[in-house]
Amino acid sequence: MTLLRARGFEWVMAVFAEHLVAGPVEVSAFHEVVDVELATLRGLDDDALDTTRTARDYCNDWVARQWVNRALVDQVEQYSLTAATLDVLAFSDRLVDRRSTVSESRLQQILDAVARLADESNPDPQARVDRIDERIAELEAQRAAILDGRVPVPPDARLHEQLGGIMDLARHLPADFKRVADSVYAMHRRFVGEAQDVPLGRGEALRGFFADHDLLAASDEGRAFQGLMRLWGDHRRQASLRRDIDDLLRQDFAADLSPEQRRALRALPRLLVESAEDVQDTYRRLSQSLERFVQQQSDGDRDLRSRLSRAQSAAHALFGHRARRSSVDVQLGAQLPDIQSVTQVQLADPRLRERPADVDDVGWDAGTGLTPEQMRELGGPALDALHRAADAAVRRHDVGRPSLGDVWAELAPEERRPKNVVGLLHVAVTRGATFLDGTDDRLEAVRTDGTRVVCTVPWGVLPAADVPPDDPPAPRDPDSDTDSAREDAA
């Protein structure tokens, strides 16, 4: 009930009732809504507002006071009301609604509940059978009276009273099931915190988790949620509920219902579904955390989190006092540096500024005994030589489309190394060569020791050299044509 005692609770409850009762809202969207409400209230010179606080500040305060939950759902942060806040809103609705909750239908519900409890708690089988026989006799008498036309239809006032009792019960459902979701969420946070901080094994942590889960399932809210899931797993009962609502709204007394009441009654099945989905979604996030813990938890991670937690606690203990300014003297030299924050300090290693030692000037033969040409032979393919050989083969070929063997023949003998076979294939692919499946070409290569090896490669031809289409043909000299004609005549 801290919400009702808070300063400016009127506008806070109005924002909650208008924007969060229907369901979760994204954090950014809700901040915009609160900003708009704050701007409107500040224009009215409301003394209950702190002009220096932003919407984010107010929302963080509401989360800290447990009026609002903030959770990450599908990688999106969302705000939702806690069960306590929903109870406060329902309490305020009852204060506004002057209709008394003490009615004949409510008393009848109490009598029926007491009779059912007495029946279920009685261990005597014969007593329970006698109660069933009494109910059967009452139902048979009621059936006979209806067939004889001796049972009048209840007055509209009584029907409206019973419907009001149903709506009162439905109004409490979101808070009740939200309490289950909050309990699961609290269990989720407690489990994650203990798994990170307490040096427990997986078995002990899981036993503690399942013990908490059993306590939740044994609570009133947990049993109500299990009953809801059993109801929603029975399709016949779902269809029966929707059919009963449709029949009720077709009766004569339902014509006096307001549009809001009719919508609330039709939305009752959807309300049950959304309440169940809220709890199920919280269970899903808890199951994901449990799975990550079982699969990824390690002693190294726990030790790292423990050290970070101790460092954070020490920082809070040192700098967490807002009444006075805390500081730590850092002696970095002959005198204290003039700094305002630790963020202005940067650690540096003087050795990083030292000039590295000069590299000794050694000859090519030192250590390896290889000449530059021999070291070059140890490298990759000679792509430049292969491109020159390909250009020469294109020029020499009759139609300008040489094969890989023609290009290989253009290489100098000392360049026909096995490594250049791979380089030749690379050059052929880059030039757009055409390869024929099932046909091979054999290239003879010479190793550095003089031995020969035959390499088999796919048979392929290089494309002809492209002639630029924009180059016009060379102009013909008329004098040269005349000289040629004279030579032919001679």
UniProtKB/TrEMBL annotation:
Positions with biased composition (Basic and acidic residues): 473-490
Name of one Pfam family that matches: DUF3375
Disordered: region residues: 462-490
Source species, domain of life: Bacteria
InterPro entries reported in the protein's UniProt record: DUF3375 (IPR021804)
Official protein name in the record: DUF3375 domain-containing protein
